[in-house]
Amino acid sequence: MAELTYRDAVIxxxxxxxxxxxxxxFLGEDIAKAGGVFKATVGLYExxxxxxxxxxxxxxxxxxxxxxxxxxxxxxPIAEIMFSDFFAVCFDYIANEFPKSRYMTNGQTKCPLVxxxxxxxxxxxxxxxxxxxxxxxxxxxxxxxVAPSSPIxxxxxxxxxxxxxxxxxxxxxxxxxxxxxxxxxxxxxxTLGTAKIxxxxxxxxIIALALxxxxxxxxxxxxxxxxxIDCEVIDVRSLVPLDTQTILGSVAxxxxxxSVEENPRLCGWGAEIMSIIADEAxxxxxxxLVRITTPHxxxxxADTLEDAILPTVDRIVDRVKRTLQA
Amino acid sequence: MLDKAAAKNAxxxxxxxxxxxxxxxxxxxxxxxxxxxxxxxxxxxxKGTSHLSLGQEAVAAGFATAMKKGDLTFCTYRGxxxxxxxxxxxxxxxxxxxxxxxxxxxxxxxxMHLTSEEHGVMGSYAIIGAHLPIACGAAWRAQxxxxxxxxxxxxxxxxxxxxxxxxxxxxxxxxxxPVIFVCENNLYMExxxxxxxxxxPSPAGDRASAYGLEKIVIDGNDADVVYRTAQKAYEKxxxxxxxxxxxxxxxxxxxHSRADPAKYRPEGELEKWKExxxxxxxxxxxxxxxxxxxxxxxxxxxxxxxxxxxxxxxKAAPNPPMDILTTDVYADGGFAWRN
Lengths: 326, 339
Description:
Strand order of the largest sheet of chain B: 2-1-3-4-6-5
CATH architecture of the largest domain in chain A: 3-Layer(aba) Sandwich
Radius of gyration of chain B: 20 Å
Number of helices of chain A: 11
Shape of chain A: globular
Largest interface: A-B, 52 and 53 residues
Strand content of chain B: 5-15%
Distance between the termini of chain B: 73 Å
Largest sheet of chain B: 6 strands, parallel
CATH class of the largest domain in chain A: Alpha Beta
CATH topology of the largest domain in chain A: Rossmann fold
Strand order of the largest sheet of chain A: 3-2-4-5-7-6-12
Low-confidence stretches of chain A: none
Strand content of chain A: 15-25%
Number of helices of chain B: 11
Largest sheet of chain A: 7 strands, mixed
Helix content of chain B: 40-55%
CATH class of chain B: Alpha Beta
Oligomer: heterodimer
Number of strands of chain A: 14
CATH superfamily of the largest domain in chain A: Thiamin diphosphate (ThDP)-binding fold, Pyr/PP domains
Distance between the termini of chain A: 45 Å
Number of strands of chain B: 6
Low-confidence stretches of chain B: none
Structural class of chain B: alpha/beta
CATH architecture of chain B: 3-Layer(aba) Sandwich
Helix content of chain A: 25-40%
CATH superfamily of chain B: Thiamin diphosphate (ThDP)-binding fold, Pyr/PP domains
């Protein structure tokens, strides 16, 4: 057991899979000699050499296209897109190529690859380097979409993603890179499509993803300590496949559900989950389904503004308390 | 007609008679199948869209004939010819165009996505430029694994103005990948002349130097020229010499797609190019080299018979069954996204 940062967990996860399988290769901008702009790939080039860890030009289409061609013909590539906002310049691969090739070819084409990317706000980078783009990906049939919130989940879910036969979008949260957690020694392998109950509770379910998970947990502690409200907190972890059973089971117990989403409100992942709850667990509910999101607005750069636009611990506490006391 | 000695000599040149007959057979096969696709469209039996390669057969035949088993083909939505040229049965292609259960992908892909991995046809891509980077990835795998196959990526002149073309060319050159980029310059991007929208006269050839590559612009209507150029590029790629960019000058006899009557073409242009019809050129070539008329006629008849039989088989084939509607979205064979 060792304490590891989320950043070092990325390195360990990639290294674990590259050691296990020579067909795992890794490409991206500044990921090799420089060790990544977030220092989340330091040492991999030295450990695995220039044939397996390759710097690319600033050519996001070439990165994702090459990953796909390699995956189709037998490799298991991990491609890095430095900031998830850059998905917009290579979205053809994410929306049209990776996810549709198997279906269109009646099962002939395989596409076992992972796209890792730095996602999310908190770095004061402004509207084009801070977005949470999981919803861009979640809506596309054929993709899997994963967003871990802790170092141990980074390793286990990254390993599961690399070993998965489908294309996986792996969203690392930039504001979590420096956070720490206990990680056991030895190989770690998790399962896609499994949510985790991080805090059991009786009065309400709070579902969250990535950076919103520690905020939801902190809010739950505050709600318990200051208001006597006992919340169950679920880390969704994997949007596709989606572990609806864990969520529905929790709602059946608490009769209330809140989502905490970093994305702008429209078509956020929470809307999909809430619609499932409304469809399938309506009579379990004692009150409205409530989504806590950023507003329908681009992200500002200034620290005071950025802090104000994202769901905060206090906002979560306030919203849960007001809803339950209404 | 050459005299007997000259004919023998010609049959033993660098291409040889057996390969020439295959180049001819392939071109006739592509012509016959594409013409049939057009006829079936007029009968409302080919649904959706279709983009024919009528007039461009020498490019597909020349490259495919120069390929080895295991080499990979990536093509665009104008990919019927490239798919057939790798040996995919006509029935499988026409079946897909007619969206029947006997099609290559049982009707799930349609004419723009013909794929037959067992023949090395790694897909037809309908988003302009998308497959150039993908071809780089296939070539990267060969380089990484030490495999000797070469990847060929076909595209039109219009592709040379999209970003992915430039990203892929640079990427392939920097990584020295065994990939051949083949631009079929048929003079029109879709409806607009390529010259009206391109800063240089040779849309691919004049871009080569930007990526440290040789400018190669060839007669794309002469299968011998295409075949020789392809062979040279494959040898270079197999020897670790990296990518090539080859621009083939050609002309499509039909419109961009089935919806296009090609009224934008200046008068006489089509007729001029039809004088340089690749099949006409090649029939003359065979005769010049002493191939008898009856050999040529037999190839023509054999091809036509196979296309006729394929047509009838496709007409008789059922529509795709509903049980494949949501299969193969994910690798587990289904489309489940939740528990």
